[in-house]
Task: structure prediction
Amino acid sequence: MGTVMSTRRGLLRGAVPAALAAPMLWTRRAAAAQQLMVRTPGGAFDEVKKRTVYAPFQEMTGIEIVPVPSTAAKLLAMFKAGQVDIDVIDTGDDSLLDLEHAGALEAIPYKDFKYTNPDDIDPSVRMEHQVGSFVYAFVNGFNTTVYPVGKEPKTWAEFWDIKAFPGPRTLADMASGAPNLEIALIADGVPMDKVYPIDIERAFRSLSRIRPAVPKFWDTGALSAQMLSNREAVLAVIWNTRVQVAAAGGAPVAPQWNQNQVLAQAYGITKGTPKLDAGVRFIDYSLSPAVQARWLGAYKAIPVNQQAYAHTAPELMDPQTNLPWTRSKGFRNDIRWWSANRAKVGAHWNRWVLQ
Amino acid sequence: MKPHRTTLLMLPAFAMLGCIFLAPLAWFFVHTLLIDSDPSDLRDQLVAVLASRAMLRAIVTTNWISLLVTVTVLLLGYPIAYYLANRRGFRFTLVVFCVIVPYFTSIIVRTYSWMVLLGREGLINQALRDLHLISDPLPLLYNQFSIVIGMTYVLLPYMVLTLFAAMKGIDRNLLLAARGMGASGPMIFRRVYLPLSRHGVISGALIVFILSIGFFITPALMGGPSDVMVAMLIERSVEITLDWPGAAVMSLFLLSVTLLLYAVYYRVTDVRRLMGTV
Result:
């Protein structure tokens, strides 16, 4: 959380005049031929990835991965200022789509991949200007001291039932990127495959029904996990990675996977980076089956390389179908809808929270 | 020649301020409002953003919370500053230490420590429940109450130090004279001490209010869903909806209000007195 916060403040104070800092960046770039600047979410994400991906990659290739905290807005500002000091962007597929629309991304040169067969990559995340690195989901996370496993709400409609399942909840804030409109619609009776295009009015009406039980909407993944662990909320719409990493650390929390909303983390390459080859090599390496198995087994996310499915952490697999839960019980988040409608939803959210 | 030479000493500071604060700020406003978007839309843009219900509510919330914080800080800070102005030695050092040390601690750490205390399962609620004073946890966190507590804690040192400087400048002989003329303690305070420390009260209140209206972290972490302050709206426009012209308009508004208050602050505050030179 610290990283996210400092990033935001950094941005507010002066990310925009990046041009003024340019001389410093040039020297850094020239001095460090063996470094690759990668935008990452920081925090727990980097702790796991450092151990399982960055360190072995450096050992093999001599290329050091330097994680740089940055938000999509800051990247866009740097791009507009013509001074991007980041080579590879590791972020949500929705943010990458915004950057792609701004013309800030190179096409991914799949033909240059050496460690990964591009045909093994889940086709739904293998796109021209970005490639998924893992898949995760919005799930119903619950505190097991209040709702023992098996007694938790099994559907979003039950999650919305404040009387049958009492206790405070937390859901995603607009500030996290997107509020849970899809899940609000499902709770209101819309089938999973009919969620898009989102009926914004209906979704907010549904959110209004659960709002009395929401003391706080979460804006960072860390906050959602913290609230659920210390019972500020006993039920949460939360990323499965956060619940399962917290559970592995001993927190009394668990996920219910039914009707999960499938999200993707992805890579993009910044347009005009002088380190294209190193960037492609890093992406290629981290998508290869053995690396995906090692990394995502620890991070509790689902590989995009289908050769690594066999090594997926068992708690991510649906025992009935032997498929990842995202395949057996989930629906895909539509980043194109969000890219086209985020500003509209943002304005609606600003009005709605004041009611 | 002498004043001219000392002015030269200020050049590096001015250059730095100009390069890393003023120039980027001007560049940001010019770029977002006049180059990236159509200047002829500027007026519509201003009206659309500033008259939106979200912004109006945020302005009201921001001012209301800032006012509550300023009053709370003043009520807490005045007695502390009075105590400091009338003590020396170990007690003085101890209290100054208690006021100053939090000032040097990260604001995020201080905000989180309050969250640990005020949470639903936090120390206060747990203690109250263990004492059987309550059965359900009190809603102490994620509302305006918790924002005011968190911000008061962060801003208290500014008030105490400003008041202390003002009170140190009060001539003790005036108080003795009042007593000699037969005035009672409360009367001396009301008729002599309070008026003499008034400029400190105004300066302190202004500085706390100015800092409050731009607050982001504490209300973002400790507030509830509807406690949206202007800085949070700006952040959301920049980061999430990527509406930079909108964010620029709101920032410009916040900056204008702040500068206006600074102008008032400058008028009522004798800066030399604050520096202890008079």
Notes: The first helix of chain B runs from residue 2 to 35. The mean pLDDT of chain B is 89. The interface with chain A takes residues 19-20, 23-24, 27-28, 31, 36, 52-54, 57, 108, 119-121, 139, 141-142, 216-217, 220, 224-226, 228, 231-243 of chain B (CB under 8 Å). The domain at 43-275 of chain B is CATH 1.10.3720.10 (MetI-like fold).
